[in-house]
Amino acid sequence: MLSTARHLDGTPGISGVRLGLGLLLAVLVAGCAGPTARPGPDYRKDGPPTSPVDISAIPDAVPRFEPLCIPCLRPYRVDGVDYQPLPSAAGYRARGTASWYGREFHGRPTANGESYDMFAMTAAHPTLPIPSYARITNLGNGRSVVVRINDRGPFRRERLIDVSYVAAAKLGLIGTGSAPVELRTVLPGDAVVARHKEPVPADAVYLQVGAFADAGTAQRLATRLRREAFPSVSVQTADTGGRLLHRVRMGPLPGALLESTLARLRDLGLTALQAAAP
Hints:
- The two termini are 36 Å apart.
- The chain is α+β, with helices and mostly antiparallel strands.
- The model is unreliable at 1-38 and 192-197 (pLDDT under 50).
- Strand 10 (233-239) and strand 11 form a beta hairpin.
- Helices cover 14% and strands 27% of the residues.
- The strands form 3 sheets. A 6-stranded mixed beta barrel has the order 3-7-4-6-5-8. Strands 10-11-9-12 form a 4-stranded antiparallel beta sheet, covered by helices on one side. It has a two-stranded antiparallel sheet with strand order 1-2.
- It is built from 4 helices and 12 strands, in the order αβββββββαββαββαβ.
């Protein structure tokens, strides 16, 4: 956000620092919205919506091709720190702390001039292109969502990303205010993103093709499986007694496809174990 405030846990971030004058001028020249005349948001008043919301009815963001906000690609400085936005979102993966912002910022302008909507699956990142898309996984509980990045922040070195209220609720961040996460960008057409959840077959089976301590190894295997057109491939991160394990899973698969899927895996030199439903 372009206003001065702090995160819900009291640390400055997206809503915690005023962007440099150069970035503001660039945004204004490009026709993006600048700061409004109303007073800046007060982090002490921030929080969830005042009325209950059915977050299950709000789907993940779906990556689509969009023109980039060119002013948002220019270098900028906040609190004496220089930031160089990335020209592309392809292949970006990182771990850090996620926090969130809510009703106090609702309706205020984001870095590309859109209005912040706490009920939309959006987020803020200091350097990823705007707009771009990312899958965020809470490393504490394994919950995962896809968000659209349309804002800048957070601006604390230990913070990786700020997410909207509804994204935070889906990730399980509301009570704690922040949590360790893994962020991986996704591009339009990536098989890991679907607009709607398919109904689970009555005879559904799940397979685990590998489990790794190294997240990169798990992601490479998952990418290989997707290239081979295996369906419903995902990487699920779980805390097993203080040790993070990244499980490469397939499913749900109809039971009728089990043997043919196992045979295809064997042809690739891979094995799989039948796993419980997530």
